[in-house]
Design brief:
7 strands, seven-stranded mixed β-sheet, alpha/beta, 7 helices
C-alpha cells in the first residue's frame, strides 16, 4: 500500500527496539543506521511539542552529509511532559524513582516528534497522547525499576511493560506513540511522500 516508497531506501535512525518493532508492523522494508554521539539537547526556551520535534530534526541533520539521493531517513524523539516540565530518560535508578513518584496518580502527556528526510524534502510532525497513572506504591515503583530497568525510556517507563499493565488507568490518543513511534500518523505522512 505504500508503493510510493519503493523509490527510497528507508533508514530508521534509531537503536530503540520499540521503534524497530513498530516500524516493522507497517510492513515496509527498512534498515537501521545510527550515528554515535548525537546530542539530544535543545534550547531551554522550547516547550512541549517543540522539544521532540527539534531533537528529531537535529538527529536528521546529523545524517544530511552522508545521505544517498535515494534514502529516506526516519528520526524520532519522545518526551514525557508533566506540569510544564520535560522528563527525558533517567540518569540512574534514583532519577527513575523520582520520575515515577511524580507520575503516580497524575495525568501526563507523551509527545513524540518525527522527522522524515530525503535528499530533496523534509517533513516533521508530532503526536500527543494523554496518559493517566493510578497511585503507585513505593514497592511497585521499586519492583519495576529493579526488574525492568527503564533507563532507556522517557519518563522512566514503558507502557507495554508491567508498570503499564498495573499502573496506566487511562489513555487518550495513540498507544503506540507512548511506546515511541506514532505509527498511524507516520503511515499517513509516508503516504504523502
Amino acid at each position: 500500500m505504500l508503493e510510493n516508497l519503493e523509490k527510497y531506501k528507508i533508514i530508521l535512525a534509531s537503536n530503540s527496539p520499540r521503534r524497530k518493532e513498530l516500524l516493522s508492523g507497517l510492513g515496509i522494508k527498512y534498515e537501521v543506521k545510527t550515528l554515535p554521539s548525537i546530542e539530544e539537547t535543545y534550547p531551554d526556551t522550547l516547550k512541549a511539542e517543540e522539544i521532540p520535534l527539534y531533537i528529531a530534526c537535529e538527529k536528521a541533520a546529523a545524517y544530511r552529509n552522508t545521505m544517498h539521493p535515494d534514502e529516506l531517513i526516519i528520526t524520532a524523539d519522545t518526551i514525557v511532559w508533566l506540569d510544564g516540565v520535560v522528563m527525558g530518560k533517567p540518569h540512574n535508578e534514583d532519577d527513575a524513582r523520582q520520575m515515577l513518584w511524580k507520575l503516580s496518580g497524575k495525568t501526563h502527556q507523551v509527545i513524540t516528534g518525527v522527522c522524515l528526510t530525503t535528499a530533496r524534502t523534509q517533513r516533521s510532525f508530532s503526536a500527543v497522547t494523554e496518559v493517566t497513572f493510578a497511585e503507585l506504591s513505593d514497592e511497585e515503583i521499586n519492583y519495576y525499576i529493579r526488574v525492568y530497568k527503564p533507563m532507556d525510556k522517557a519518563g522512566s517507563y514503558g507502557i507495554q511493560e508491567w508498570i503499564g499493565f498495573i499502573g496506566v488507568c487511562g489513555i487518550s490518543g495513540s498507544y503506540f506513540n507512548v511506546m515511541g513511534l506514532p505509527v498511524q500518523c507516520l503511515y499517513t505522512e509516508l503516504k504523502k511522500l
